[in-house]
Specification:
The complex is a heterodimer.
Chain A: H1 5-11, H2 25-33, H3 47-57, E1 64-66, E2 73-75, E3 93-99, H4 104-116, E4 118-121, E5 124-127, E6 130-134, H5 140-149, E7 158-161, H6 165-175, E8 181-185, H7 190-200, E9 204-207, H8 211-223, E10 229-232, H9 238-253, E11 264-267, H10 274-283, E12 286-291, H11 296-309, E13 322-326, E14 335-339, H12 342-355, E15 359-364, H13 371-376, H14 382-391, H15 394-397, E16 402-405, H16 413-420, E17 423-426, H17 434-441
Parallel strand pairs in A: 3-6, 3-12, 6-7, 7-8, 8-9, 9-10, 11-12, 14-15, 14-16, 16-17
Antiparallel strand pairs in A: 1-2, 4-5, 13-15
Helix pairs in contact in A: 1-2, 5-6, 6-7, 10-11, 14-16
Chain B: E1 14-16, E2 30-32, E3 49-55, H1 63-69, H2 76-85, E4 91-95, H3 107-120, E5 125-128, H4 133-146, E6 153-157, H5 163-172, E7 175-179, H6 184-197, E8 204-207, H7 217-232, E9 242-244, H8 253-256, H9 263-281, E10 283-288, H10 291-302
Parallel strand pairs in B: 3-4, 3-10, 4-5, 5-6, 6-7, 7-8, 9-10
Antiparallel strand pairs in B: 1-2
Classes of the chains: A alpha/beta, B alpha/beta.
Chain lengths: ~450, ~300
């Protein structure tokens, strides 16, 4: 279990030498206690204390960086089982696979797609992360050539997949300095692979079908000097993957088996439905997901699911307050009020856009709370509405003085009318009913 | 962690539909619930059902679905039959969209449509009314009566309009979908209200409301996980199976604005990712609207 700062402090040299980068040993201990510092930063610690503290102060899931430069991706460093407990921090890297048996053009086209495809959502650019090169030719030189074609790791992070030692040697000679992920060390080949990973400073995947075997392999590789590991639980079914990944994450969070405190690797292409496997990996603890090329539809949905899953639940995505024109509204168009909870906004926007009804959507600041909770919690009040109408100059946009409020805000009708001088119309509670409501009720 | 380790199911078992032996006319009935652990992990009996939604008035139905099913959209009977026989849905969810129209009073139609749809499919049926409590009390009375003994799943009951659904469920022996807006405590409160009305706990299915992927799905996902964890930790007022209906998914911008030749692919990708994620979060039934999503979900669940 995790130790408290003061308990950690007892084991530190108490010299306040600042070589760890913190002003005092106690400050360092406090960072260690929350998994935000590395015990290795202390130059004077006693080896016994280091071994003791190393196991309890590192993040429960180790941070592992794949690739170098701008597009490198860091995964792991997670602290909870469920996103509602705190948040998930490092979205899984999604790596699209190519084979060294493919024509060069096909490899190039996948690489270009990974490099360039961007999905823009709520102000964020969502991208695929890297390329996984599979050694299927049985030819080490061809594998190295394909790795070179994929950029050699200079641009996009790479995963090198082979079961052939000369293949890895040739590929690492091309790409080794850019920290490609090596897949995979097994019970049979871990010694030479761990040596190669150590030589190049590359992260290494260990692959085994049981938790005990995974822990043993990870322990061996860590002992051989490879600090950055990923775990491939090698499951044949999605149910097996979810159950095993959950067990690995739990073990890591509860620190019951330090050798399982690494990010998880998932090869989505080995399951019957790639989309389901990608979704399972995103939702359930994968750090790296290797996938066959995804259609545009699948790619957009997958990247959006990843964004949703890794949104900080303590800071809901909020829409900036203001007046939003929908369907090119004129001076006769209705003004609809709603809250700045992104879900509410997007849902209403969807129905309004689909209805083609021109209107002004007035978003007031309820600190990201829904209509129901903001009315109940006093975050949606007549004062807020009056201030927003004034601040955003709504009176100058339209010739009428009619404000449509959400059905759940009906109790505020009288107060809003008194505070604003606008006449209030109570709209439906359900956004789905808005188009019909407007069609029937809206007459200026 | 909080899983229940006893042999008693943490999640209550709920039987949907009734065979002839059970007093109805269905060829199959289903038991959902019974989980003692997290979804897809240990002590999970894997009872997951895919419902295809149909409606009796397609005017407000997503265009992408209307285009795909063609004439079926104008005939709930044929649509229901295709849902089961052609698309492989475990059950049909009949939405009385006609009742959402202002001034709706064709209540006799509700009874006859219910009867015809029941006759067209051998599977249990879910029925969705309007959003208007006054209309609903008559809608649920009519469809409830028409399906007496069939253990229909009637929806949706909400905190301020649950009485008409509950009354029809009690009078004719049906089940209730208890829908609350993405909040664990509101879900719990509604279940308590329903219990006080006399609806037995093994006749309630929780619908925590599902936002579309990219439009708030993260809240739905977390609330489903939290409801399931609370139940596994012993909260009996939340220990009902869950249903998820990502109803808004097919009207999102990405699907609406897709070029015609990509529209089905876009609709199915977004609906599939949302629906599968809902199962991972703990849903026992997911209702979808695109027939191709049904086929893909069924294959994944059977694998």
């Amino acid at each position: 279990m995790a130790m408290k700062a003061l308990d950690i402090y007892k084991h530190l040299p108490k010299t306040n030498c600042k070589k760890c980068g913190y002003p005092t040993c106690l400050a360092f201990a406090m960072k260690l206690a929350v998994g935000k510092a590395d015990i290795e930063a202390c130059p004077d610690i006693d080896p016994g204390a280091k071994a003791l503290l190393g196991g309890v102060t590192r993040p429960p899931v180790r941070a592992v960086t794949i690739g170098a430069g701008e597009r490198s991706v860091t995964v792991g460093e997670e602290f909870v089982m469920f996103r509602h407990e705190k948040t998930f921090y490092h979205p899984p890297g999604i790596m699209v696979e190519v084979s060294d048996t493919w024509p060069d053009d096909e490899v190039r086209s996948v690489v270009a797609e990974v490099r360039e495809a961007v999905v823009e959502r709520v102000g964020q650019d969502l991208v695929l992360n890297g390329v996984a090169v599979r050694n299927e030719s049985g030819d080490a030189d061809r594998f190295a050539e394909t790795v070179y074609l994929a950029g050699g790791g200079t641009g996009l992070p790479l995963v090198l997949i082979s079961d052939d030692l000369p293949g890895f040697e040739a590929a690492l000679a091309v790409a080794g300095q850019y920290r490609p992920l090596i897949h995979a060390a097994t019970a049979d080949n871990w010694e030479p692979l761990a040596a190669l990973a150590k030589q190049y400073g590359s992260p290494l995947v260990v692959r085994a079908g049981t938790l005990a075997d995974l822990a043993a392999l990870a322990g061996n590789c860590a002992g051989a000097g490879v600090a950055d590991l990923l775990l491939d639980p090698a499951q044949g079914s999605l149910q097996g993957y979810i159950a095993t990944a959950t067990a690995i994450r739990r073990s890591a969070i509860e620190r019951t088996e330090p050798a399982l405190g690494y990010p998880i690797y998932l090869d989505a292409g080995t399951f019957k439905d790639t989309d389901a496997a990608v979704a399972a990996g995103i939702l359930k603890y994968a750090g790296v997901i290797v996938t066959p090329r995804l259609s545009r539809a699948s790619r957009e949905a997958a990247l959006t699911l990843r964004q949703n899953t890794y949104t900080d639940p303590q800071h809901p995505i909020q829409v900036a307050p203001g007046v939003y024109p929908v369907n090119d509204p004129g001076r006769e168009a209705p003004v609809l009020l709603t809250v700045n909870f992104s879900l509410t906004y997007f849902t209403i926007l969807g129905y309004l856009e689909a209805s083609r009804m021109p209107c002004h959507l007035l978003i007031v600041d309820t600190e990201g709370l829904s209509v129901l909770t903001s009315v109940a919690g006093g975050k949606l009040t007549e004062t807020i509405v009056a201030d927003a109408l004034k601040k955003f100059g709504v009176a100058d946009l339209v010739d009428h003085r009619l404000l449509i409020i959400p059905g759940y805000a009906a109790p505020l009708t009288g107060k809003i009318e008194d505070a604003t001088g606008w006449r209030v119309m109570v709209g439906p509670r359900d956004a789905a009913d808005l188009p019909e409501y407007l069609e029937k009720e809206w007459k200026t | 962690m909080s899983e229940n380790s006893s042999d008693k199911p943490a999640i209550r078992e709920v039987r949907l539909g009734a065979t002839r032996a059970e007093g109805g006319t269905r060829e199959v009935s289903y038991v959902i619930g019974g989980e003692q652990g997290l979804p897809f992990c240990g002590n999970d009996p894997g009872r997951r059902l895919v419902a295809l939604e149909i409606c009796d008035d397609p005017a407000i139905w997503p265009p992408v679905v209307r285009n795909y099913v063609g004439d079926l959209a104008n005939n709930p009977e044929d649509w229901a039959e295709a849902a089961e026989r052609r698309y492989g849905a475990d059950l049909v969810r009949l939405n009385f969209t006609s009742a959402k129209k202002r001034g709706f009073d064709a209540f006799a139609e509700i009874a006859s449509t219910t009867e015809r749809v029941l006759a067209a499919t051998t599977r249990p049926l879910i029925i969705e009314g309007s959003n208007d409590p006054q209309v609903d009390s008559e809608v649920f009375r009519r469809c409830g009566e028409a399906g007496e003994g069939e253990r229909l799943l009637l929806g949706t009951a909400e905190a301020d309009r649950y009485r008409s659904v509950a009354a029809a469920a009690l009078a004719y022996g049906h089940l209730v979908i208890a829908q609350s807006p993405i909040d664990v405590n509101l879900a719990k409160q509604l279940n308590i209200l329903l219990r006080e009305t006399g609806v037995p706990e093994d006749r309630i299915v929780i619908d925590p409301y599902t936002g579309a992927l990219g439009y708030g799905f993260e809240y739905s996902y977390s609330v489903m996980e939290r409801i399931r964890l609370a139940a596994l930790a012993g909260d009996g007022d939340l220990a009902m199976p869950m249903i998820s209906a990502p109803t808004d998914t097919l009207t999102i911008r990405e699907v609406r604005e897709a070029v015609p030749e990509e529209q089905d692919a876009m609709a199915v990708a977004w609906e599939f990712y949302t629906a599968y994620s809902a199962f991972v979060a703990g849903a026992s039934i997911v209702s979808v609207r695109h027939p191709l999503t049904v086929e893909r979900l069924k294959k994944v669940l059977e694998a």
